[in-house]
Every structure is written in C-alpha cells, then in structure tokens.
Amino acid sequence: MASDDIWILGITMTKFGKRPEDDVVDLAAEAALGALADGGVTIQEMGVLAAGNLMGAAAGIGQQLQKQIGQTGIPVYNVANACATGATALRTAIMAVKAGECDMGLAVGVEKLSGAGLLSGGSRKEDADTWTPKGRYGAVAGLDGRVGTEIMPGVFAQVGMEYGYEHGGATFELFARISEKNHSHSTLNPLAAYSKAMTLEQIMGDIMIAYPNTRPMCSANCDGAAAAVVVSDAKLKTLDPDQRRRAVKVSASVLTSDPWDEGCQQLPNVNTLTRRAAVQAYEQAGVAPEDLDLVELHDCFATAELVHYDNLQLCAPGEAVPFFESGATWRTGSTPVNVSGGLESKGHPIAATGIANIWEVCHHLRGEAGDRQIEGAKVGLAHVIGLGSACGVHILEKAA
Known about the structure:
Blueprint: E1 6-13, H1 24-39, E2 49-52, H2 61-69, E3 76-79, H3 85-98, E4 104-111, H4 135-139, H5 152-167, H6 172-186, H7 200-204, E5 208-210, E6 213-214, E7 224-232, H8 233-236, H9 241-246, E8 248-256, H10 270-285, E9 294-296, H11 302-311, H12 320-325, H13 342-345, H14 350-365, E10 379-386, E11 390-398
Parallel strand pairs: 2-3, 2-4, 9-10
Antiparallel strand pairs: 1-7, 1-8, 4-7, 5-6, 8-11, 10-11
Helix pairs in contact: 1-2, 3-14, 5-11, 6-11, 10-11
C-alpha cells in the first residue's frame, strides 16, 4: 500500500578519513549494519536495497554488499549520480516505500578516495586553430579551455567570483572566513576526517588551488560510507515506542537537474537546479526557510557555500554576504550551517556524502549530537550537488 509519510528509522556514517585497511565492501557493510542496528531491524526485513559507489559504478556495489551482509532476494538498485549519488540512493529507497512496493528499505553510499587528489577536468585534447564541424562531438564543441574550465575547483571558483561580481563583498578573506567556520565546527565531530581548527592566516596562506579557494577551502577527498533505513508510516506504527521516538520524518525528498536552456552551451549551472530543488522541497514539506534549525549544505568549496545560502533561500536574494557577516551560519547563529564541519573538514567520500549530510541533521533532531548539539532542533535541511547536473534536497523533521 502506498505511503504518504516516510521515516528514517536507522542511520549511520562511518569514520571518514584514510581507511587503508578497508575496501569499499568493508566500509559499505560497516555503514549498512550500523544503520540496521540503529533502527533495531535486520537485513531480512528490508524490501529494497539502493547502493551507490561512483568510482566503481560498473561493479555493482549493491550485490557485493548483499554477499557480505546477507542475500535476501530483494531488488537491488545500483546508482551513480556524481556527488549526489548517496542522496539518489536514499531517494530510490524512499520512492520504493512510498509507492507501496515494500515497507522498509536500505540505502547505502560508499567511496574510497584517499589520495585521489583533484578530480576530473582538463580532458580536452589538443586541436587545430581552425574548427571544422564534424560528427556528433564536432557539432557541439566541449567547453574546457574555451569557455572557462571543467575542472571542479575552477568551476566553483568561477561560481563564487561571479556572485561577488554581481552582488559585491565576496572577497578572498570572506571565503576564507567561511572555511574558518567549518574547520572550527569540525572540532566537535569525532567522525570528521579533519577535526582541527585553522586560523584565517593559515587558510589564506595555504596552497592556492583555484582563486579564491586555497587547499583548506576545498572538500577533503577521503574514504567513508553512510547508510539509512527508511520505513513507511504504517509499518512504523507497529514498532516499539523507542523506535517511533527516534524515527525522523522525511518531509521532503527532491532531486532535480538543469532545466532546458537555449543551446545548452554554458558552464555547469549549480545555482538554477539548487533553487528549483529548494522551492520544490519547501512546498513539499510545508515549511519555510526561516523554520530551519540547521542546514547541511554541499560546501565542496568555500565559494559554493556562499552561493548556496542564496540558492537555498536562507537569505534574501543577493544578500549572502551580509547573511554570513551577521554570524547566522555559525553553530551559535540563527541558521547554523555545516555544524558537522562540512565537506571541507568532515570530508567528501563522494557517494557517501548525501546520506552523511542527512545523518548529521537526524543526529540533531534526535538530540543525539553530543557537544555540537543544536538545542531544540526540530527541522533541518540536507543538500547535495552532483556536478553535471543533479541536486538533492531533503527536509527532515523531529518526531512529534
């Protein structure tokens, strides 16, 4: 039977960082078994498994995981959707439960990225000075090196600089202060890859990756996994009181891509698809941005965090700089952002990030976040971007 309300029953993330002793199946199994234990259920009770591992997308991480933790004959969906892979896996499980195909499902995201360095881009081959249209790839030329860059640090550097050009105030130091905030937040997160505070001078004086983002202002590629168990409203009502008390309501689950655009010859547009996802999510959840008690957003670079304040409507249009300057996004502010330390400190094992961001929000809504607890948190938003293009937004609410 179809279900209107979906709940997260169990959720966990592994310690992010360098995990040389573990392969992707080890990490995925650790997260999956952790989420099942957290929810007080077993793999035998799951009706669907959705699993993501971007670097090994063709290897079928879902079936590999089944062999490790128990084959049950249930449908397995292997998903790959860039940095939105984990959020997409969760949404796949949610859709299966919401459609009534099963009453519980498991979503897992896992990645091994330690030592990967900067990812992707710079792939355009040498070509002649004169361009002659030829075939599919000749008819539509690649953009890398012609119009900006496809290298991720470059793309997000340009996004931030464009915002500063249009609205003012987005200086090198301001972006560094965003990073300073996230590194400070990470000192309270024992599962973060890096949990050391950094001064403004250290951040600004570090290696420049793509102006204005220095190394500490970039997401940390690392190893890690996260997993979640989702359950229908009807099934949740049959479980014991403690399981119902700790369940977190999924008030909105949205996935978007870029809208149609004339010619499609433009840089990846992380702004439009995030704005569309946010509008849909707020409408679906019936909440407003000012109702949010915390936000975990995709700070793959410090420049990205600034533009997403605006894209997620956390501030008035064009007011992201004064919004940050007000102190609102610090843990003690009115709209705490990336209390976990964000991708810059917690780390960014790509396929795990979407679920890990949701784990952080759930941790606070349950009142289980320890020293970094946002007191009285009832509503939170988790956001993730997949370059090229995907955006996942989930709004979560504390059980009544």
